[in-house]
């Protein structure tokens, strides 16, 4: 094996006293984490060890010029009791696209899969299996080289942390179409899950919140008329029964849930269109009383219905009933991820049992 992973078990566990009915997503984490270093042109020191703080130099380049990239994925408890990571391969491909855009080293498939497998199997007691619960996995890569200078770093750290999460949140969100600020422009890094894309979105989001909305609905940087995405969710509309979502133009994130929901929609015979959709088109649909559903899709929130869309000061109210396309597709996705429905696209990666841990070796 090219990247052996050391396992150093924690000698205490927060699991026995952890209350999975009141998960505090964000600060709560499992007992272990994965880490590895990129040095001298290769990944090394791969280990699963007790979760702890760590130190880096104030000169570490990630603190200065933004070479930080992350992923967000989930592990689920299947009906048969095993634990599965959802669409591991697709997350790896996207991680490497993000890393390439930021001039950072690729994470090899063997390292990525074995790291997640070993971390999740070590901490698999944290995948409770209670309805709506799962384990959020946050891989990240950042520049640690201690050498000030506006250049590509030569040293990096990769870490993966695991956080219990529940998605009992079934509310709807209010969004405001953003026509002043821009999230990403053509030729930029909008398709990459790199830190800077999020920091730059905080101010417009804060302003939208102060105006009574939950999120902004980003528009294209050139005309501010075509819808892009919202927060950390891709957006979809169902107008007259057709599911429409903005195309992967390079300015929006290539969401794994976007792809999954599109696939499930096609499977069930729903017409789908990946094409630019302007707010004028939305306004026109609302004004002629067409049936309109709107929702965001992403790993953290899964699928969130949009209950209000504000376009240039005027609010419109999409259909948020549970008999629509959105909830049907959400239930189907959830069914596949938890083993209730057949995994016909082979999206579930079943994690090794701790004792028999059989490592992936291509
Ligand atoms: C992560 C993310 C998404 C959703 O991607 P998933 O793979 O479905 O979680 C959408 N937009 C942005 C900006 C994101 O960061």
CATH class category of the largest domain: Alpha Beta
Provide the residue-averaged pLDDT.
95
Q: CATH homologous superfamily name of the largest domain?
A: Aminotransferase class 4, branched-chain amino acid transferase, N-terminal domain
Tally of DSSP helical segments = 8
Helix percent reads 10-25%
**Alpha carbon gap, first and last residue:** 10 Å
List the ions, cofactors and other small molecules found in this model. Answer: pyridoxal-5'-phosphate
Rg value: 21 Å
- Largest sheet composition: 9 strands, mixed
User: Which structural class should the secondary elements be placed in?
Assistant: alpha+beta
Quickly give the CATH architecture of the largest domain: 2-Layer Sandwich
Instruction: Write the CATH fold name of the largest domain.
Output: D-amino Acid Aminotransferase, Chain A, domain 1
Order of helices and strands: EEEHEEEHHEEEHHEEEEHEHEEEHE
Contiguous runs where pLDDT drops below 50 for at least 5 residues:
356-362
Domains counted in the coordinates: how many?
2
Shape: globular
Strand content: 25-35%
Query: How many β strands by DSSP?
Result: 18
EC number: 2.6.1.42
Protein name: branched-chain-amino-acid transaminase
Organism: Pararcticibacter amylolyticus
GO molecular function, one term: branched-chain-amino-acid transaminase activity
